[in-house]
């Protein structure tokens, strides 16, 4: 399916409706949903360039709560005329963790962060045969292709899928360090990575998201040679990471892929809207 309208203020990407094939609990706080069906070919064709990036992502379109009887494909113009704003499907941004041409499936890993929100609870309740609508993919970042320039990868659980994809995409002779913050030891995953890239799991053990990641970042020695950084997670933590990486270490913005993936106390709609305000900006300009 293509061409479902989105808000005129946004880039309108083609829409695709996948069918849930499988749900796996990867860890206590991460659920993998594997998606297949007829949408696969069109999705891959529409986003071939973006799907080559490690940070490839989509905008999911989900009913705001169960029980409304809304089923993809959503015609937003039609729904806007018929439903209260609070009942309209909402957008949520997710990494495409895997694209498997052999099985013609893609996989999305969802952090389950309690009863709040739309996408986390949707993933927990998902069943084979459910439909999931998403945009064509975006994505920009890929690991260093120069073994002399290492990558530093930083993330909380929300960025774990992107960091895991980046580790998998690295060349065999790549060097670097990945710091991944999760709740506890049972949330660690077995991630494929080159032998020259160290992976350190950091446990929150009840501390606020991002706090342990920042502590580990601040404990690192500043680099003395070129370094590329991929850092994503909770907004407040990413602002503090900017202070270390850019303001203190002096890394140029061109070597930083740094962004907020979510923010404490904000549903994604509010979080995205705040990107246009000072509170939502990671850099002053
Ligand atoms: C480019 C990009 C890629 C992303 N990739 C992924 C991905 O692959 N997997 C993934 O799980 N997330 C990913 N995220 C983050 C995800 O979009 C947000 O976490 C989103 O808010 C989840 O939607 P929701 O409906 O579950 O919660 P919302 O309705 O948006 O929020 C409800 C409440 O839950 C809180 N909340 C939201 N996310 C989290 C969280 N991770 N931990 C704790 N509390 C939270 C909010 O602060 C809010 O109070 C990505 C974000 C971006 C920008």
Helix/strand layout:
Layout (H helix, E strand, L loop, with lengths): L14 E13 L2 E7 L2 H8 L1 H4 L5 E6 L13 H7 L7 E6 L2 E3 L4 E7 L7 H7 L5 E5 L15 E5 L4 H10 L6 E7 L14 E7 L7 H8 L9 E7 H14 L7 E7 L5 H6 L12
Parallel strand pairs: 8-9, 8-11, 9-10, 11-12
Antiparallel strand pairs: 1-2, 1-7, 2-6, 3-4, 3-7, 5-6
Helix pairs in contact: 6-7
The structure holds flavin-adenine dinucleotide (FAD).
Explain what you see.
With 285 residues, the chain is an alpha/beta fold. It folds into 2 domains: 3-135, Elongation Factor Tu (Ef-tu), domain 3 (Beta Barrel); 151-280, Nucleotide-binding domain of ferredoxin-NADP reductase (FNR) module (Rossmann fold), CATH 3.40.50. It is 22% helix and 28% strand. It has helices at 39-46, 48-51, 76-82, 119-125, 160-169, 211-218, 235-248, 268-273, and strands spanning 15-27, 30-36, 57-62, 90-95, 98-100, 105-111, 131-135, 151-155, 176-182, 197-203, 228-234, 256-262. The strands form 2 sheets. Strands 4-3-7-1-2-6-5 form a 7-stranded antiparallel β-sheet. A 5-stranded parallel β-sheet has the order 10-9-8-11-12, with helices on both faces. β1 (15-27) and β2 form a beta hairpin. α6 runs parallel beside α7 (235-248). The longest helix has 14 residues, at 235-248. The radius of gyration is 19 Å and the shape is globular. 36% of the residues are buried. The model is unreliable at 1-9 (pLDDT under 50).
């Amino acid at each position: 399916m293509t061409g479902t309208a989105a808000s005129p203020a946004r880039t309108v990407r083609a829409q695709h409706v996948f069918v849930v094939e499988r749900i796996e609990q990867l860890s206590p706080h991460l659920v993998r949903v594997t998606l297949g069906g007829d949408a696969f070919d069109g999705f891959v064709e529409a986003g071939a360039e973006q799907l080559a990036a490690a940070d490839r992502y989509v905008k999911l379109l989900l009913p705001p709560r169960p029980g409304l009887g809304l089923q993809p494909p959503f015609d937003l113009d039609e729904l806007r005329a018929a439903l209260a704003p609070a009942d309209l499907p909402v957008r949520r941004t997710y990494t495409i963790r895997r694209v498997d041409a052999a099985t013609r499936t893609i996989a999305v890993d969802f952090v389950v962060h309690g009863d709040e929100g739309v996408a986390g609870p949707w993933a927990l309740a998902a069943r084979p045969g459910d439909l999931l609508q998403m945009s064509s993919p975006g994505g920009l970042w890929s690991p260093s292709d120069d073994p002399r320039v290492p990558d530093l990868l930083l993330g909380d659980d929300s960025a774990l899928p992107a960091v895991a994809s980046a580790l998998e995409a690295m060349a065999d002779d790549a060097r670097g360090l990945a710091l991944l913050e999760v709740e506890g030891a049972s949330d660690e995953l077995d991630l494929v990575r080159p032998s020259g890239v160290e992976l350190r799991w950091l446990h929150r053990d009840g501390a606020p998201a991002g706090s342990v990641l920042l502590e580990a970042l601040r404990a690192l020695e500043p680099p003395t040679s070129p370094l590329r950084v991929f850092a994503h997670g909770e907004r407040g933590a990413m602002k503090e990471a900017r202070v270390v990486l850019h303001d203190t270490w002096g890394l140029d913005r061109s070597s930083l892929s740094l962004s907020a993936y979510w923010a404490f106390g904000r549903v994604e709609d509010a979080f995205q809207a705040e990107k246009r305000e000072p509170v939502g900006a990671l850099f002053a300009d």
